[in-house]
Please model this.
Amino acid sequence: MTISVADAQLFFLMLVRVLAITMVTPVLSTRRYPAQAKIGLALFLTWILFPVQPRPDQPWEVLSYCLAVSQELVTGLLAGFASLATFAGLQMAGTYIGFQSGIRMANMLNPRLSDIVQVQGSALEQLYAMVVVLLFFLVGGMHLVILGIQQTFQIVPAGQFALSPLAFDRRLVLGSMMFNSALFIAMPVLATQLLVSVALAIISRVVPQVPVIFVGGPLKIGLGIITLMLALPWMAGFIVQKLSRVIDDMLIFVAS
Model:
């Protein structure tokens, strides 16, 4: 079997997109996953998807091919960021809760705490990251990512890339949804912390003898943990719903 120059160029373009997606996809993007395994997975997926990709009529010229490679890299990074948005939103929710409840002070006592699970941030952010990883595998997240990669080539074939103002607006909306999801997930704990702060402020005015500073810290941490435990079942359902939309999010990011 002979391989033409155009086919080799097309294969490399597809490999660039798939490799860019796998480099930023949740779980695969961690340092614990070897780079050799990422490259091998990208080569395997490209080899599977290559036969169904439309063939170019003639080889690309040097300048146009360099532009096509950069376009495929951007397309892959956009699709990978879409799959990563839910994970980033969960870690952001952990940041919100950690600052308000005081749980983030654990990092002051153990600054190397984030090295244990290779996730930067407080212990609560790491807990959220572990929960979303478990739910990611529970809903078949890797299968969804692979299907999303295949459908990105259907929407935007290799070597074709167009960035319209409408697509840019949709990506902004999807990016803002990450912040909305983080706030929505953190809302039960944040609401509890707000009520505790108001109650402590009233107590400090009515009964000045009460050491609010010493009572408030442990009270906020305790109520924050209890609220988090009560909200976890509801939170898991919301996260599963978000993870199930990973294909739609990837297509929104790459579609023009």
